[in-house]
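INTERNAL AUDIT FORM
Audit reference: QA-55
Scope: verify that the stored structure record matches its stored sequence.
Auditor: D.O.
Record contents follow.
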Amino acid sequence: MVIKKARDIRSSEITPKDVYVRRREFLQASAAAMLAAGFGALPGIAEAQQPRTKLKGPIKKSPFSTTEKVNLYEHVTSYNNFYEFGTAKDEPKVLARNFKTTPWTLEVEGEVAKPAKYGLEDFIKPFALEERIYRMRCVEAWSMVIPWVGIPLKDVVEKVQPTGKAQFVEFITLQDVGRMPYQRSNVLDWPYVEGLRLDEAKHPLALLAVGIYDEVLPPQNGAPIRLVVPWKYGFKGGKSIVKMRFVEKQPRNTWNVMAPHEYGFYANVNPNVDHPRWSQARERRLPDLLATTKTQMFNGYSEVASLYNGMDLRKNY
């Protein structure tokens, strides 16, 4: 099976609508091809049930939470973008079911006064866990409301003390083909990398999530630690982070490298800038696939607007 990288795909090769609607047949064929290529059998959904573990310690409610209706646990854990475990939304729950996250090391390096390697529990221990109910908007025009549990990214930034040279934070995720089967393909450049401007990372809304619904983060949602930036499209939230690097120059981010004409560095939710292949003006709140609502600028988090004063948000998409 030949999988082209996004940067190699011409507009004439974009899947026509009549082919796209036969997606289920394509996924079945893809599963067979994966099996033939040695990726292992794709187990049934019934085999994919995972243990649910309560997070340790107190969890305080955050004033940043929305009052909108929260999606069900089953919605949030069964419809995921996590290409390391499959390109279809229902694959990560199955293929990540045995993903081991202990022990886990997270490294902080670069332009900081306190670089260090941490075990995950040691990394989290100095901070108070918060529940934050955030609207989350995917670039594919669907959205959910998710009760994340995590630590404010700004608190981590303050603890490691960036130097005057630090202008950006780069987030590098796990690369392990033995544990992440789709990393054996070239569907993306691995490892998955994301980045924020330092002032974005220091905004009170940015979160490093370690759980949902007061439980340990499931593998398909980015266990054991992932980035959550609610005013940006979902692909900005790197999953299974192993390194945070403070740097002077703007880092690469995977989708911008793969398809720069479609995905910019900033990834701010902006209904006035369409994706080249679909409109971003409206969205579907899952699980309702039919009704749509108007997309809000910055996903409704207008308090971040001052971060972009004077910027052309069509050019800096």
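Auditor finding: record pair retrieved intact. The chain has one domain: 6-308.
Action required: none
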